[in-house]
Amino acid sequence: MAERIASASVNQQLNAEQTAQSSALLAEFNFRRNKWKRDIEELKELHRSICKLKDHTQIASSAERARFIAEQHGNDEEIRGEYQEIRKFAEGFRLEREAISTRVAELLRAVQATQDLSTLARMQEQLQEATGSWLEDGFIRSLVQQAAAHIEEVKRHKESLLTELNHLIESVSTARSAGQIRLLQEQARMLVADFHDPDVDQATRQLENVVQTKLERLDQVISRLKEVAAQIATAKSMAEIDAGHAVAEQFSSEDSEEAGELVKRIRYSVDERKKEYRRISTNLEMLVTSASKATGVAELDLILARRRDLLKKFPEDANFGGLESKLDTTITDRRAYLAESASTEAAQFEDVPELEPLDVNTSPSPTPATDRIGPSTQIQPKPRSTVRRFMIPAIALVCVAGVGIILILPKRMPIQTLPRDANITVDGQPCASPCTLSLRAGTHDVEAQMAGFNPLHQTIRVPWFGTEIPVLALSQVTSQPVVPAIVTEPPATVLKDARITVHTSIPGASVFVDNEPAPVGLTGSNRRYQLQTSAGSHRLYVEKSGFETVPPQTVDVAKNGTASLGFNLKPLPAGQVASHPEVSPSSIPAPAGGNPSSHAVATPQPPDTYIVVQAPAGAEIHIDQQVAGHSTGGPFRSKVQPGQRVVEVFLSGYKPWTETPNIAAGQTGELVANLTPVPASSSLPAPAPNASVSKSAATAAVSEEDHSQIQQLLDRYTSAIIHKDMKQLRAVWPDIPKDQLEIMKELGSKHKGVNISLTITHISLLEGKEDAVVKCKQVLQYDGQTSEDNVTFYMGKLSTGWIINQIPRSN
Fold this sequence. Notes:
Blueprint: H1 2-50, H2 56-72, H3 77-113, H4 117-131, H5 138-174, H6 178-191, H7 198-233, H8 238-250, H9 257-292, H10 297-310, H11 318-350, H12 386-408, E1 411-415, E2 417-418, E3 423-426, E4 429-432, E5 435-439, E6 442-449, E7 456-462, E8 472-473, E9 498-504, E10 510-513, E11 521-522, E12 528-533, E13 536-543, E14 553-557, E15 562-567, E16 609-614, E17 620-623, E18 626-630, E19 635-640, E20 643-644, E21 647-650, E22 657-659, E23 662-663, E24 668-672, E25 693-695, H13 704-722, H14 726-732, H15 738-750, E26 755-765, E27 771-782, E28 785-798, E29 801-806
Parallel strand pairs: 2-8, 9-15, 16-24, 25-26
Antiparallel strand pairs: 1-5, 3-4, 3-6, 6-7, 9-12, 10-11, 10-13, 13-14, 16-19, 17-18, 17-21, 20-23, 21-22, 26-27, 27-28, 28-29
């Protein structure tokens, strides 16, 4: 019984375990079955919804979810089938999206490469057709938005260009000089250089037509005025001068600086020729008076010679013709009178009885009859009287002596210099030009001196008749005067086997070496001066009037080596006077009487100072690195400040020309730019651009090696800025000013995402091909902002390669 009970208990336990296992299996089955139903429903929902989607991200997410569900159910055919359908749709969508994206990207590149609005409108229609219902895709939508933004930007740029071109057309219409017109024309060409649109092209053609019309009119006026000026200068009568003056006055209303300047010069020339005319007329009338009082034939012959000299300049003048006839009549009458007087005087001498000598010791005796004169008596001629023999030579001698006295007496002679206001000394007599001195006929020693001009020593000849003396022309002092050295013994030969390059922050600074009293030269427009000297240690300093004194620097340069020094000159504060580096300010004597301000005297306003440059037509003239205008072929006149100025002349096909004249206040400096043609050379092919610097166009007269080295230098410059490498920056720019170095440091430390790229637009090699002006287009990015600008680099070539000399702050 007990065994049964135990067996029943065991069976009961086994049944309970089996029941529990069955329940667990049933629960797991139900869970799996329900999950399968949910997953299959989710897959079907994904299949339905994915067909409606157009966004690549959402479709990829749905396909990834379907793959995850399919992997959980293994080889379930129904779930695998749904997943395959979803995957097939996603793959087809991906391929179609890639094709659409490629098409849209190609259209976007084409849109960004053109600026013609009609072409852009057609491309926009093609974009709309290509995208259609794909705008829900973020990537495609962004491409379409970029294209639309570019088109809007082109529209705004076109409107801006048209507005600017209209303003330039108005400016050309009111421009007063050919230089201004050509400058505006060049500005318009640069403005539309890379923009091609029918409306913009039409506006450009309109501007070119206005420029052409304006220049042709101006050329006609200038040519006519030059002809009038030449006519007046060579006129042979006052009628021709008056006719030329009338023509010039007709052009006085022309709104042109060149025409106005020529009219002023013509008026001045007319006044001078009228003065000359009046002077000649007065002299002719004086000759008539002198002829009527002439005492001899020789004097009349001198008057005739003088008449011929006076009538050379106005041989066809009617008034002078009348005076000439009057003078001829007077001379003829005077000759007849002198001849008649001589005949009468000779007759009187013939009628004078000759006196016989008397003998006081003999008494008179009657004449014998045999001594009387009869018809057959032969009459002997009587000896000539002593009085009659010497009377005529005495009269002639008195006449000659009178004429000689008249010629020997001093006469008032006008003396003039060019320019005026020079100090003149004639045979020890001082005066200020223009002046009048009493001089005798013959030669005289003349000395003329003036600040800013070379002293003049000349011998002049005062004529026997007339008061004409040539104008004394003074030559301007050159920019680098030669100081003669006092040599007591033959100088030793110094071997110049080293080179020192001096860089200054301003042009026109005087460079002194080894305590020499005179400067060795001036820094040019590139603010640079190269000194050939001997190897060893040298002490250099620079100075310029109006700028603070900088301390001298000592440099050691090896044989056949080079060295570079930089000096930063700053303008003096108002009222301060610069001191020499070797002279203490305390050594300058102070004004007596205490406070200098108490002795202040009002200084009169100085007269204007001008520079006149004679350059070929079309040349661009710079004064102190600013565009002053363009030459029309005649003298170019510009008002400047007194002192040393930097004048540069540029013309296509010619080497740049530079001069640094020192012009005194109130004076006019006259320069002649003799340009040297550049030898013809083929343009170099544009090299392949790199990551940071590229060249947009081939540059003539630049060797491939120089171009490559300049590109490498700009690469190192941009890399130093991007990587904040101040050591490398100093290596490429040795003389970088401290303030600009601090700006570079702040750019790297205070801003994020700094990036800079440079594109060379033009390279000009200066004379000697050891200096270059490199113009670049700069794109600077920092803090998410982008700015574009044009930057100019002044570079110098050393034995080790190119370096940056300066980047003007105006950049």
